[in-house]
């Protein structure tokens, strides 16, 4: 029996060790910050390091523990969601995508910040759109946006010029985008991909947001009717957006099927195809230059041009864009919410926000940063990209959005690979979305 | 052998049982905690709306058979079931099992050097980690991969194999990887077949096929059932190889049940729904096991 008791004791110790090994032992002296390490020259990690140093200097005896998570955005959501399940692993401060705030607020993962925000004088400096982006449907605010982003057409001036397209290029309809891509295909080098638009499940949210939604929101139709508070599972705009994909891939204006399906494509486009002149037009995010500047391609400003993504037929307002953004939030199960809040306000004060916005080529959401010296002048992309905030759209911030987004990716991929015709894919989408959100939640 | 007596209490019938329980207790405890525990939890979670985020994460509710109703009315689930059946049939039952038997038969009675060489090659495919095997096949079949380079060398046009023929690609990869297991199992069984029986048959004029059909196969029938069952269950739950090669795509063209389950549970965070898929997968395995035992009418 002695042996048995010993074995049991060992097992018990092992079990406790497992329980605590991944835990943080959160107390009021340590702030645990969980964030995504985007890689590719992204300054988020450096920005949090700066804030950590400043916080530890201003609060002697307290420490900040940064926990970077590497991998794709979807993996990150999953990892954080699992950490949020238990007080021993829950973060004090978490880098939170504004589009997941609603779902995580409903899940009880996040702490409402309203009382603290009322006392924070900097909060008045944030633009109204930024304040709305982190407010859930219950009217409470769960995070503070660090920056926003927009999406547009990046084009290689030389490749388009060689194909006979007038520079600066300013397409006024989808047709003109396709015409430019066709010109590159007909007159350009054989190994140049005319146009990239993300079309795979592997590219995840990039396919939904940089790709499909950039088309859909230029048709006048939307995914969700904010007035009626209902999803729109079927619209002409939806069909037309899929038809655009069909044209791109059936006329071989896009990347090869294997390239298009690779989860690596976003990095390949940013770090290889565009810098090496292998891609003429890319429908992509405003953050691309940070990799170029980090990788020693300062000449990108001479090579690359930016054109707003036109609406379908040039209808008002002529261009469209999609915006999102990451915020800092506080975990509801945090053992040190006060320390978390102090760190959050340090990281998001004017100086640190300006630093990360400039380094990441992100669109600032603070008026005082936008007006500060050096922000607008840092490179040629800032002015045209900031202009897009006037026409930009936000994704429906609803708990069902990630599932609807996955349906969009499946529909787009099946059209791009020729697995189904656009009308079949649209019908599958209608059926699946209706099943996901419920028949009473659709128009 | 207890015989046809009235069954006494288990402990009384096995007087050693109580004494054996003591030393076994830690193992039993660990098994309960780490094996039965998760399975029990799966049964529970499959009947809830448990999720990693959204309303289901805050207050998980018991939803009865909702997950299963939803599952059985989802055409993608049935597509996945079909793909899983195709995958298991061609890669495990036909591919690994028959090829393994064939290799074992061919290698029997060959020179030791030949046996060693073939064995080493086949087993090498089996011992490398699954993720490496997946990557090797990805590199072989990708656009700029070895196969297309070889074809180009011969003046032929390759294609995007992983996009155009995803199921064929993952089936081939799984046959390549798993055949060694069946081959080893059959080699062991064949070495137990008495040579005098075979010699007697051949003296009576039985050709090689006849000897195989009437002597060898009946003698290794039990091994066959075990092997079929093992490779079926292994292949049914295969995830990494497919995930690395095609990730279930393009679209859903190679999305077998484990990949469907992964997508639901870890990409869409629907834990309850994902575990319901896991239970279905478990029952398919159980049914497959029963079928083998029944159809081949042998006790295992």
UniProtKB/TrEMBL annotation, chain A:
* Annotated SUPFAM superfamilies: Periplasmic binding protein-like II (SSF53850)
**Signal peptide positions (record):** 1-19
Transmembrane keyword on record: no
Q: Does the keyword Signal apply?
A: yes
Q: What positions belong to coiled-coil segments?
A: none
Key words, A-Z: Signal
What single Pfam family name could you report for this chain, choosing any that match? SBP_bac_1
Q: What is this protein called?
A: Extracellular solute-binding protein
The organism encoding this protein is Streptomyces triticagri
